[in-house]
């Protein structure tokens, strides 16, 4: 069969162009494809749902304002239902079928760790929204995260305990991934913080009564504070049982329950006096005028609450931070090439997000320090900033 | 010492009463059809969720609770009419698989119809704990225990004293013989679904102020209730009650005296040991083998 010379040349040129274009890179004018795998349903839905809403809201806003580098963002969200296996399947789909240039998501630590190899292999930057410190320690070339780690939460809690002159702690943790991970981190940093764990109990993520465990903690020798590592409804029940048993030692919860919902589930009476480390978002209005985060968190809070008519949660804030870090990196890199984008994300300095001021480096793929956590206390059914 | 034991006992009995009610629901349907209805946990969830959303809409609590039970009974009857009845010739295993599907379906609908959050209900008589011999007991625990006792009594009266109840028992004893003497066993099965749904919903209403609720609380309750029913002897209402209370007590005492890390292990170890010695369960019918 004779192919006209000109056509043949065009075909060859086309093939060469196709080969020359690196995988994953997209031509200008086309939308920039951003992927997300979130636990919108399932046991971690209270994390994934606000994350999903936040990403959709801000991608629309950014597109409405002209997009990034003159191109629209195209967001693809998959719901893993809290199942790490499904998350990994969706991660592969994002990389192979949807050809995303970056990923903002991974609601739980388990899902994030399951997806990480997929993005590392494909050299697609992956900004996780999960808490576990093992996500970025040791740092993987293409994996980042926005939330504070559970180790920082432990350090913040222990520092607050020491400031109150307390040092003997009864720990109660959930046996789910979050609880188990935070328990491990707390035990690791306890000694350095000058805190002794004198009693240790656990509960299943679905348990509905923790009075036996708390009774044991109360009966342990000279317990001065109770620290609960966990998220979901467990900490709410621990808080109720703590009040029911009339335990007078202070109760500390983790950043995992930093939402208004926790207070209403635990009931304001039972939650009175409970302290926990939280992102600035939780106490946006109480931040001093000079606080660099004040404007950012207030803007996000207003936008979210106006759009969805439900209280803002710090978890949605992590998604906001992840998306904005990505958008800024896209602008700086002016490219959608995985490695250049990764370098740009890694070069993030002084980014003010809802979670804190982010300064990333090659060895720090989270970029937050303890100052990003604010110690808050429940008073009269609301969060109050405890003097920093 | 006494205070501690009492605290563990009340905790165990309260949780156990809920397991017992779920196990009772399993038992009723099992007796009428040899089917283990895995959607039983979803009835508990519906009871709690409908009450939460009805009270949030301004319905007074007693009326909301009544509506929740009514709505769940309707769901139970529909489940029977739309999913079990059309497959009436199928084997028990097929029907069990249908109930698993129904359970997933109900959870999915609840996610959309309600939402995916946790919800709470205020305690019926407040939430100030009542001190008793050094233990602190929530008034709601008494509601749960009292409510469970009333349900057990009501069910007992129904089964022993009414014609419909006798038909249920006849069907449980021997389906073919019951049919031969004119008992409409299909209607008995429908009735069992309705009553099981009602019991589940009542359990959900009673326990939500203590345990909170969400669209997926049913899964674990169904599992624990099933374990309780097996322990007591599948098919025996008395066994369901004893089994449920035992599982609850084992968990609480295991957490209190052994270690909270092994609390579920303690409970299930005892169940395995009992079933090893008494394969029919504590109160199960022994030696009935269908060929």
Descriptive report:
- The complex is a heterodimer of chains A (388) and B (291).
- Chain A is an alpha/beta fold and 388 residues long.
- Chain A has two domains: 186 residues, Response regulator (Rossmann fold, 3-Layer(aba) Sandwich); 129 residues, Rossmann fold (3-Layer(aba) Sandwich), CATH 3.40.50.2300.
- Helices cover 43% and strands 16% of the residues of chain A.
- Chain A has a five-stranded parallel beta sheet with strand order 2-1-3-4-5, with helices on both faces. In chain A, strands 7-6-8-9 form a four-stranded parallel beta sheet.
- A two-stranded antiparallel ribbon of chain B has the order 1-2.
- In chain B, α1 packs parallel to α5 and α2 runs antiparallel to α3.
- Chain B is mainly α and 291 residues long.
- The longest helix of chain B has 32 residues.
- Chain B has a single domain, classed as ABC transporter involved in vitamin B12 uptake, BtuC, CATH 1.10.3470.
- The radius of gyration of chain B is 19 Å and the shape is globular.
- The interface between A and B is medium-sized, with 36 and 34 residues.
Overall body shape of chain A? elongated
Strand content of chain B: under 5%
CATH superfamily of the largest domain in chain A: Response regulator
Q: CATH class of the largest domain in chain A, anyone?
A: Alpha Beta
Kindly report the oligomeric state of this protein.
heterodimer
CATH class of chain B: Mainly Alpha
Number of helices of chain A: 13
The fold-level CATH name of chain B is: ABC transporter involved in vitamin B12 uptake, BtuC
Query: What pattern of helices and strands is seen along the backbone of chain B?
Result: HHHHEEHHHHHHH
CATH architecture assignment of chain B = Orthogonal Bundle
What's the SSE pattern of chain A?
Answer: HEHEHEHEEHEHEHEHEHHEHHHEEEE
Keywords (chain B): Amino-acid transport, Cell membrane, Membrane, Transmembrane, Transmembrane helix, Transport
GO molecular function (chain B): transmembrane transporter activity
Family (chain B): Belongs to the binding-protein-dependent transport system permease family. LivHM subfamily.
Organism (chain B): uncultured Acetobacteraceae bacterium
């Amino acid at each position: 069969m004779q192919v006209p010379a000109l056509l043949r040349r065009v075909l060859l040129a086309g093939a060469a162009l196709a080969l020359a274009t690196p995988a994953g890179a997209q031509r200008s004018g086309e939308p920039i494809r951003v992927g997300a795998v979130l636990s919108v349903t399932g046991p971690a839905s209270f994390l994934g749902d606000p994350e999903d809403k936040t990403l959709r809201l801000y991608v629309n806003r950014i597109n409405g304002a002209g997009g990034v580098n003159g191109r629209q963002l195209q967001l693809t969200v998959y719901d893993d239902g809290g199942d790490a296996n499904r998350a990994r399947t969706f991660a592969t789909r994002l990389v192979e079928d949807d050809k995303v240039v970056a990923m903002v998501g991974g609601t739980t630590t388990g899902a994030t760790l399951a997806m990480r190899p997929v993005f590392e292999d494909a050299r697609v930057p992956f900004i996780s929204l999960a808490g576990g410190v093992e996500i970025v320690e040791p740092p993987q070339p293409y994996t980042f995260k926005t939330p504070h780690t559970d180790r920082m939460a432990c350090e913040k809690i222990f520092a607050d305990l020491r400031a109150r002159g307390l040092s003997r702690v009864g720990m109660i943790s959930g046996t789910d991934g979050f609880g188990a991970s935070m328990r491990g981190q707390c035990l690791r940093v306890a000694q350095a913080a000058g805190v002794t764990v004198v009693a240790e109990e656990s509960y299943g993520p679905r348990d509905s009564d923790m009075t036996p465990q708390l009774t044991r903690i109360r009966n342990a020798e000279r317990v001065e504070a109770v620290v609960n590592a966990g998220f979901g409804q467990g900490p709410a029940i621990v808080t109720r049982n703590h009040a029911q048993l009339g335990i007078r030692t202070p109760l500390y919860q983790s950043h995992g329950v930093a939402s208004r919902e926790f207070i209403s589930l635990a009931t304001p009476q039972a939650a009175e006096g409970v302290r926990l480390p939280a992102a600035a978002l939780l106490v946006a209005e109480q931040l001093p005028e000079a606080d660099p985060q004040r404007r950012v968190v207030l803007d996000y809070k207003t936008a979210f609450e106006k759009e969805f008519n439900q209280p803002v949660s710090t978890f949605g804030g992590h998604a906001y931070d992840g998306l904005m870090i990505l958008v800024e990196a896209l602008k700086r890199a002016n490219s959608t090439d995985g490695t250049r984008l990764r370098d740009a994300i890694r070069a993030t300095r002084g980014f003010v997000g809802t979670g804190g001021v982010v300064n990333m480096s090659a060895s720090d793929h989270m970029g937050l320090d303890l100052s990003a956590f604010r110690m808050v206390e429940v008073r009269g059914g609301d969060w109050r900033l405890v003097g920093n | 010492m006494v205070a501690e034991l009492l605290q563990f006992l009340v905790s165990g009995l309260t949780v156990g009463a809920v397991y017992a009610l779920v196990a009772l629901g399993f038992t009723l349907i099992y007796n009428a059809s040899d089917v283990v209805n895995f959607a039983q946990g979803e009835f508990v969830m519906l009871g709690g969720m409908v009450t939460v959303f009805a009270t949030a809409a301004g319905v007074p609590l007693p009326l909301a609770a009544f509506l929740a039970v009514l709505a769940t009974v309707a769901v139970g009857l529909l489940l029977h009419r739309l999913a079990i009845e059309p497959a009436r010739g199928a084997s028990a295993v097929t029907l069990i698989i249908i109930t698993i599907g129904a359970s997933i379906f109900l959870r999915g609908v609840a996610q959309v119809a309600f939402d995916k959050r946790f919800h709470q209900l205020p305690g019926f008589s407040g939430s100030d704990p009542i001190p008793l011999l050094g233990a602190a007991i929530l008034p709601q625990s008494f509601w749960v225990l009292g409510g469970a006792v009333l349900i057990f009594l009501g069910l007992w009266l129904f089964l022993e004293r009414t014609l419909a109840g006798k038909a249920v028992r006849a069907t449980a004893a021997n389906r073919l013989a019951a049919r031969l003497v004119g008992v409409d066993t299909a209607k008995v099965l429908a009735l069992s679904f309705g009553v099981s749904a009602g019991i589940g919903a009542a359990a959900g209403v009673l326990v939500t102020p203590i345990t909170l609720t969400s669209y997926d609380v049913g899964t674990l309750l169904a599992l624990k209730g099933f374990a309780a029913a097996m322990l007591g002897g599948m098919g025996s209402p008395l066994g369901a009650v004893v089994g449920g209370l035992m599982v609850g007590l084992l968990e609480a005492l295991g957490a209190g005296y052994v270690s909270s890390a092994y609390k579920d292990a303690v409970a299930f170890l005892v169940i395995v040991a009992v079933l090893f010695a008494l394969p029919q369960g504590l109160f199960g019918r022994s030696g009935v083998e269908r060929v």
